[in-house]
Write a structure and sequence with these properties.
818 residues; alpha/beta; GIY-YIG endonuclease; Arc Repressor Mutant, subunit A; 6 domains; seven-stranded parallel sheet; six-stranded parallel sheet
Length: 818
């Protein structure tokens, strides 16, 4: 009987691919194990085994697998189910989900090796110079990589040369897999066993009397052994004995010391301090806890609506403790990596080494170690904190999922596929595991609040700040009036300057929020009106003063700031608008004695950059912190007395149906960073339109009124949560072809789905990375089947792909577009 294996390849294929396996391989392969398989002409891919069967594929002849890579499954059954749901719901392929979910170190790729052919009859005079260099190198080495050949001939593209040698029979090609993950091994030393005998030890010490440094090393080793029974690393012995590695090596060479290696994790977290293990909840938190338990008892996810600084984290800690007591794992999802660095310290205080962290700033080796710890249910990975990618980890005993700041749009993945929403996908994940889910926010999203109001979610509320601290006093500053009366200093109103000066005098800190990085978004010539544009995208280039560059925030294109206009040659260049860099510079001029820090994408590129800025601000090394939306998300600074919002109108006037909801959330969240201790905080919002309804609702912290108004508007114009939305984006470099293709696709959708198709329409930025974009919005009423609508769209896509002239047009689906 022939056996066949269906595998998931980490490439965008609609179907599983089938390979032939032997009876022995069929006996040891299980779903979720990795297998190396040949695909295409010569490439080898790492695939995930899906299931074994005995039916041969009809359309193609099944190849044999290359090798089995795992002894045990790397991916659990729960994960495979969850990933299949994601692929189906978010209209992508299972291969794309696998590629996104697995750390890249697990997806081994093949590398082409060039080998010499010993049987070849070579006439060296007939070889070209480059070919001879490769041939000569292979006389001294058994195999060469493509990159090494490139270095030898000093050319980037060497495939033509290699193909020539292959055709002449001088060399052959071979594909080999290489492992990306390398475990970290730490060197340890111990005294050789023969010196356990007292007589031998005495002789050794007498002999070492003539070598004082070596003697010092041995004595230090005894002292370290007496202090602790743990193994002694070479680095510790070197430090404590105040000698060099060379001295220790000479003792190893003599056989006095023995070295050995222990495999260890790259990221280590501290122990819990036992005395602060218990969390005391106040009356409001206890009431919320009872409401949460009530929701959990009905097997519902629970929305915790707690004002900023109400102590939601303490409630989560209680729930996590309960989950650990039951012997289960907990997942704590956060929208921003910046938040993890602050929260790790808080959770470690209670749970110590049980806490693991997982996010994209970790190296591939560190991610592999966290993955393996979670898979083996290790003690050090009972609680996992991370951004949205942490949801893909191989939990086998998940008991609780905490989704903090659940309203955040950062939970939505935009590129590449799968374009999933981590909040919604995490609720499904918890459901598969039979785990409880809690979603927390001071400003819940419209969707979550509607789910709570309709009884789909449980609901718990905390209306008061922890320790009965007063909510901050929020004031609106009319900068239209101030500009007219010429009372602005740069982008600062007199009111804001006076408030900053007052807080600095009192020794308090200030946060200023400006949701645009760089120095100025537009550099314009005042003579001819020319604005420097990105050659690849339909946007102006943003000026970054620190690098003296004009940069595109969409494709990364950059150029040096020109001294004269590129169009007319005039030196009259004017910088319009302002970003965080300009705010920082103006503050330096207004308050020269203050230390000003900045937190945006430009200053947080390094692995520990978030941590450095946050801890510096916490330790009061900075007086003022200027930041983009990173500073709005749940950070807890105890000494902030004032929060200033530089310009609230840019968010309110954004062309998006969620602009008002997002503005309310962001302004309320950033206001919540002020006055988190006994003294009442102050918030100043600079605006050209102080009578705007959203700004009025922010000043009174009236979430309910904002929700009702927005819900009414969404009902009128049919937007979520009243309907579901799928956004279809068409991309192509040919402007006319894109217009034609998008019209065809939209009219086909209208024929099937009737009146719920909007577009095609250009987005505000209609060209990115040289490709033109057009959007089609599909609104699906709640009473219509979502899966049937998706199947209809997929059928139309098949007809679309069958039209040869539209072959180059790319279709991108964004389900639950936000």
């Amino acid at each position: 009987m022939d056996y066949f294996l269906d595998v998931v390849l980490p490439i965008p294929l609609e179907r599983l691919f089938t390979y032939k396996i032997t009876e022995q391989e069929a006996a040891c392969i299980r779903p979720g194990m990795r297998v190396a398989v040949p695909f295409g002409k010569s490439k080898i891919y790492t695939a995930l085994s899906h299931h074994i069967h005995t039916e041969a594929p009809e359309v193609y002849e099944a190849k044999e697998i290359y090798q089995i890579l795992d002894e045990n499954p790397l991916v659990t059954q729960h994960q495979l189910k969850h990933w299949q749901w994601m692929a189906q719901y978010y209209m992508c392929t299972l291969g794309e989900v696998v590629r996104s979910a697995l750390p890249s170190a697990f997806l081994l790729e093949s590398e082409t090796l060039i080998l010499s052919n010993p049987d070849a009859n070579v006439n060296e005079l007939e070889l070209k110079d480059d070919e001879f260099l490769v041939y000569e190198a292979l006389q001294h080495q058994s195999a060469l990589r493509i990159g090494e050949i490139s270095d030898i001939v000093d050319k980037k593209n060497v495939l033509a040369r290699i193909n020539g040698l292959v055709q002449k029979g001088i060399v052959s090609q071979k594909e080999t897999l290489y492992e990306k993950y390398r475990p970290k091994l730490v060197r340890y030393v111990k005294l050789a066993p023969k010196f356990d005998d007292d007589d031998n030890l005495q002789v050794l010490l007498d002999n070492l009397g003539r070598a004082p440094k070596q003697s010092q090393v041995v004595l230090t080793l005894f002292q370290l052994r007496a202090k602790s029974k743990k193994p002694i690393p070479v680095s510790d012995l070197e430090k404590e004995s105040k000698t060099s590695r060379a001295v220790i090596k000479s003792l190893i060479d003599k056989g006095v010391l023995e070295e050995y290696h222990i495999r260890t994790d790259r990221v280590q977290h501290g122990e819990a301090s036992m005395e602060s293990k218990d969390v005391e909840l106040n009356v409001h938190q206890k009431t919320a806890s009872l409401e949460i338990d009530q929701g959990f008892s009905q097997n519902k996810p629970v929305l915790l609506h707690g004002v900023t600084s109400s102590g939601k984290t303490e409630v989560y800690i209680k729930l996590i403790q309960k989950c650990l007591d039951e012997g289960r794992q907990a997942l704590y999802l956060l929208p921003e990596i910046a938040l993890t660095s602050q929260l790790i310290n808080r959770l470690q205080t209670y749970f110590g080494h049980h806490v693991a962290v997982y996010h994209s700033k970790y190296s591939i080796n560190e991610r592999v170690e966290v993955w393996n710890n979670v898979l083996s249910c290790a003690e050090k990975a009972q609680i996992v904190i991370g951004a949205r990618s942490a949801m893909f980890l191989p939990f086998s005993n998940l008991g609780l999922v905490v989704i903090d700041e659940e309203h955040e749009s950062s939970f939505k993945q935009f590129d590449p596929a799968p374009r999933y929403h981590a909040r919604d996908a995490a609720v499904v994940l918890a459901n598969l595991h039979g785990a409880h889910t809690i979603l927390g926010s001071a400003t819940p999203s419209m969707e979550s609040m509607e789910n709570a109001k309709t009884g789909k979610y449980g609901y718990a509320v905390i209306d008061y700040r922890f320790g009965e601290v007063l909510m901050p006093e929020i004031s609106l500053v009319d900068i239209k009036e101030a500009s007219r009366k010429k009372r602005m200093k740069g982008h600062f109103s007199e009111t804001l300057i006076d408030a900053i000066a007052e807080k600095l005098e009192e020794g308090e800190q200030v946060i200023l929020f400006q949701n645009r990085r760089g120095f100025a978004p537009v550099v314009e010539c005042t003579t001819c009106g020319h604005v420097a544009q990105c050659p690849n995208c339909d946007v102006s280039l943003t000026f970054h003063q620190q690098r003296n560059q004009l940069r595109c925030h969409y494709c990364g294109y950059h150029m040096a700031l020109q001294q004269a206009c590129l169009a007319c040659g005039s030196p009259t260049l004017d910088k319009k608008g302002f970003g965080t860099e300009q705010v920082q510079e103006e503050l330096g001029e207004l308050f020269p004695q203050a230390t000003v820090g900045r937190m945006d994408l430009d200053t947080t590129r390094g692995k520990f950059a978030y941590e450095k800025i946050i801890s510096a601000f916490e330790n009061q090394e900075m007086d003022i912190l200027v930041g983009t939306q990173m500073v709005t998300k749940g950070l807890d600074f105890r000494n902030v007395g004032l929060v200033g919002i530089m310009n609230a109108d840019s968010m309110l006037n954004f062309p998006d149906y969620r602009a008002h909801e997002r503005s309310f959330q962001m302004l309320t969240q950033v206001a919540g960073r002020a006055g988190r201790t006994q003294k009442r905080g102050k918030v100043l919002i600079q605006t050209y339109n102080p009578y705007h309804q959203i700004l009025q609702q922010v000043t009174t912290n009236d979430y309910e009124k904002m929700y009702q108004e927005q819900y009414y508007e969404r009902e009128q114009f049919k937007y979520p949560p009243i309907v579901r939305i799928i956004k279809v984006t068409l991309k192509d470099k040919d402007f006319n072809k894109l217009n034609e293709a998008s019209d065809w696709f939209a009219s086909s959708l209208r024929n099937v789905l009737r009146h719920q198709v909007l577009g095609p329409e250009y987005p505000p930025i209609a060209r990115i990375r040289k490709a033109y974009l057009k959007n089609i919005l599909i609104k699906i009423p709640r009473d219509r089947s979502l899966s049937k609508t998706k199947n209809s769209i997929k059928r139309i896509e098949k007809s679309f792909n069958a039209i040869s002239k539209y072959k180059s047009v790319r279709l991108v689906y964004n389900v639950d577009h936000i």
